[in-house]
Amino acid sequence: MSNLEKDPAEVLLAEPGRSSFEILEPRDVPLGGPRALPVRRTLPQRGRSLIGAWCFVDHYGPVATNSMTVPPHPHTGLQTVSWLFSGEIEHRDSVGSHAIIRPGELNLMTAGSGIQHSEVSLPIASSLHGAQLWIALPDGSRNHAPFFESFVPEPFDHGDATLRVFLGSLLGHESTARTFTRVVGAQLDLPAGASIELPVDAAFEHGILIDAGAPTVDGHLVARNEIAFFCTGRDTIAISSGTEPLRALLIGGEPLGEQIVMWWNFIGRTHDEIVEFRRLWESEVIADANEDGRFGRVRGYAGGALPAPELPNVRLKPRR
Ligand code: MN
């Protein structure tokens, strides 16, 4: 997905805060385009920019199946994780991938030095419902050549829970999808009235995004669409579903330990680098000057690419 905000705020991501537990509340963001898809954004936000290297969480639906039409747009310095609960999305990118994203199937796009992609939901199933998440690439890997991969995790039981590990490893189940820092990503389903102790990596920060239900997580009531955040140092997390079935996404990872500049769909390290990414996108793609440049071309999408918004009038710089 693209950050389609008309005037995206600069986000320079600094060291995480020190609280051991936080509730991250979503803010509603209407993504632009022909049909504005409303998303619930829980990362980044004031006071919390990263969970491990995870730097962006957009959660959407259930909405009408034709709600997502995102024209070709660029990314740099990150991986996009697409995960659906229902519906289907047609993905095309500039490394030649053409994939249908389906529920329970990871689609992972590593932008590295630069890629562009389009995403269009298909009129299949009763609704479109899912999440798009981004993982920041560490400095040593962020200029990697772009690539796209899929992985279908085998569901397994842990007590009363059913888990699908789509990135990293958990409880002996491992994803084959490539990551550049140690991270985990999994779907967790728990029927009503059930409890589990989930063993987690104590070197990781963790977030549990509640898609359905109203669970108690480590003694805290967490509402639908919120993220329960845990800092490093935890080796188990206790989860009780309560009166409703729970469906959640677990994300986690080692603290990135780097400061990154995030603006629109780009992640870089400096203001000037972001300015250059934007300039190349506008000249090579929007002005159609170079098919073989940093962002290549998306084939088969009926329509033009998405122009970048204007940069703010101030230099992108660290927040206090
Ligand atoms: Mn995107």
CATH class, named: Mainly Beta
How many E-type strands? Answer: 27
Principal-axis shape? globular
Assess the beta-strand content as a share of residues: 35-45%
Ligand catalogue: manganese (II) ion
Please name the CATH topology.
Jelly Rolls
The CATH architecture category equals Sandwich
- What's the helical proportion of residues? under 10%
How would you sum up this structure, described in words?
The chain has 320 residues and is mainly beta. The chain has a single domain (15-253), classed as Jelly Rolls (Sandwich), CATH 2.60.120. It is built from one helix and 27 strands. It has one helix spanning 271-286; strands at residues 11-13, 21-24, 27-30, 38-43, 54-63, 69-75, 78-86, 88-93, 98-101, 106-110, 115-122, 128-136, 147-151, 156-158, 161-167, 169-170, 173-174, 183-190, 195-199, 205-212, 216-217, 220-221, 227-230, 236-240, 246-253, 260-263, 266-268. The strands form six sheets. It has a seven-stranded antiparallel beta sheet, with no helix packed on it. The chain is globular and about 60 Å long. The chain starts with 10 loop residues before the first strand and ends in a 34-residue tail after the last helix. Manganese (II) ion binds next to strand 6. Residues 1-2, 73, 75, 80, 117, 265 line the site of manganese (II) ion.
